[in-house]
Write a structure and sequence with these properties.
- The complex is a heterodimer of chains A (190) and B (153).
- Chain A has six helices and seven strands.
- In chain A, the strands form two sheets. Chain A has a five-stranded mixed β-sheet with strand order 5-4-3-6-7. Chain A has a two-stranded antiparallel ribbon with strand order 1-2.
- In chain A, a hairpin with a 5-residue loop joins β6 and β7.
- Helix content of chain B is 71%, strand content 0%.
- Chain B is built from six helices and no strands.
- In chain B, α2 packs antiparallel against α3.
- The longest helix of chain B is centred in the C-terminal third of the chain and has 34 residues.
- Classes of the chains: A alpha/beta (190), B mainly alpha (153).
- The interface between A and B is medium-sized, with 20 and 19 residues.
Chain lengths: 190, 153
């Protein structure tokens, strides 16, 4: 009996140690997404390059694609452009959701679409262009509805317009192979 | 000159007034402050959205303001945010099968401690009883009494 009493605190201590040890290797930024397995929220947003064209969830449905939240102001997004362009070459459909920064009315110049278009064209020519097209989320309303906390973030949307994956952070070969490729393949099967 | 300064000052006052949020009642203002204090910024770890100036916190604050102005109550605004950003975004976690351990663990530890205490006390008493029962003490006592008596006459 004494032996058992000795082992109870020891095992509790070991369990606590394991629990705390696992905390050392966990990513504090990782959180469960609230939008997985839900349809895309309703929106009507203009195309970045052809503002007269309005995108809605219905127009996007039909095949599985990646919705990549990005901005030219975001260094991590710029870093992942090259790898995303590689994925596009492999046949992955990627749609950009342009996350525009809010503007301070006192200090910032007012929003100018032509400047932004020029900026984006230049950036994509430099780093590689992974996008079929870009949707401009000027007020970040769709981003808020999708639970976007910053850029870059990437969603996998299936052919019926249901969100199947939500990745916070950049996409690199490790993330793609370890996490997203399987989901993409699962939902791109006919 | 004075007139120009006065006009400039008035202009500044007008600008700063625009920055301030307009509410219809004190209850609405209080609700807004309560909500921005208990909603957590998803970008910057451990700051509420009232505290943070991250883009997403600014947007969430603005949305909270809009929803409060629309007359939504506390639970409706919380649901709106939790539907988009998950339970992470609220500083009061709901009771579910993961969080229930936060409340259960201390109770279970207390019960374990009480159990060990009761067990030890019982085993001590059992030891004391067996010691008294084996008769060696009373035999020794009888011997002492006998020796004392034999010395007396």
């Amino acid at each position: 009996m004494r032996k058992v009493l000795f082992y109870i605190p020891l095992s509790l201590f070991l369990l606590l140690t394991l629990f705390l040890l696992s905390g050392l290797f966990s990513d504090p930024r990782e959180r469960d997404s609230a939008v997985i397995n839900k349809p895309l929220p309703a929106f009507a947003l203009a195309d970045l390059m052809q503002p007269e064209h309005i995108w809605t969830p219905e127009k996007l449905a039909g095949e599985v694609f990646l919705l990549n939240v990005w901005g030219t102001w975001c260094p991590t997004c710029n870093a992942e452009l090259a790898y995303l362009a590689e994925l596009r070459a492999q046949g992955v459909k990627i749609v950009g959701l342009y996350y525009e920064l809010p503007r301070d009315p006192t200090f910032d110049a007012p929003f100018d679409l032509a400047t932004l278009q020029q900026d984006v064209t230049q950036k994509l020519a430099q780093q590689g262009d992974p996008y079929q097209f870009n949707i401009l989320d000027l007020q970040r309303t769709l981003s808020l509805d999708l639970g976007v906390s910053g850029a870059p973030e990437t969603f996998i949307i299936d052919a019926n317009g249901i969100v199947r994956a939500h990745h916070i952070g950049d996409i690199n070969p490790m993330v793609w192979r370890g996490k997203l490729a399987a989901v993409y393949q699962q939902w791109s099967k006919p | 000159m004075k007139a120009i300064i006065t006009v400039l000052m008035l202009f500044c006052a007008a600008l700063s007034a625009e920055e301030m949020l307009q509410f219809r009642s004190d209850a609405e203002r209080q609700l807004f402050h309560q909500l921005t204090a208990e909603l957590r910024c998803p970008q910057c770890q451990n700051q509420n959205i009232a505290d943070s100036n991250a883009i997403v916190a600014v947007d969430m604050r603005q949305k909270t303001y809009e929803l409060v102005r629309q007359g939504q109550d506390r639970q409706q605004v919380l649901d709106y945010m939790i539907n988009r950003y998950g339970d992470f975004v609220h500083y009061q976690p709901p009771l579910n099968r993961y969080t229930v351990w936060l409340w259960l663990t201390p109770v279970l530890l207390l019960l374990l401690l009480l159990g060990i205490g009761v067990y030890r006390r019982a085993s001590q008493q059992a030891n004391a009883n067996t010691a008294a029962d084996d008769g060696s003490d009373s035999a020794e006592l009888d011997k002492l009494i006998a020796r004392y008596r034999s010395k007396k006459p």
